Amino acid sequence: MKIAVTAKGxxxxxxxxxxxxxxxxxxxxxxxxxxxxxxxNENLAAAGGAGISSAKTVIDAxxxxxxxxxxxxxxxxxLNAAGVKLYTGLTGTxxxxxxxxxxxxxxxAAGPNVQSHFxxxx
Length: 122
Prior knowledge:
Blueprint: E1 2-7, E2 25-30, E3 36-40, H1 50-60, E4 65-67, H2 73-81, E5 85-87, H3 94-103
Parallel strand pairs: 1-4, 4-5
Antiparallel strand pairs: 1-2, 2-3
Helix pairs in contact: 1-2
């Protein structure tokens, strides 16, 4: 399974980025092969629509699940429409989040866990 993890850096040791739409990077990890790719999030400084655009980025990368700290309603709807499973409330490193996912201890999010425009600097 291909999973996308929001990250502040480009490695498995990077800290989870708490903002889905404005995460610095998406780490794409394939659970069967342990292949790893890092995608710089071009939506980080977007004036608007960062959540939807970021959701499209991970969908286009083939992600079947997203692990993140927080996800707003627009991104959640976009991911849900594409059949991508969402897991929120994660902290720690990318590697720790992946291990939790692989162990089956994470609960799929029932919806967004923050309001629109979470993480926007005002």
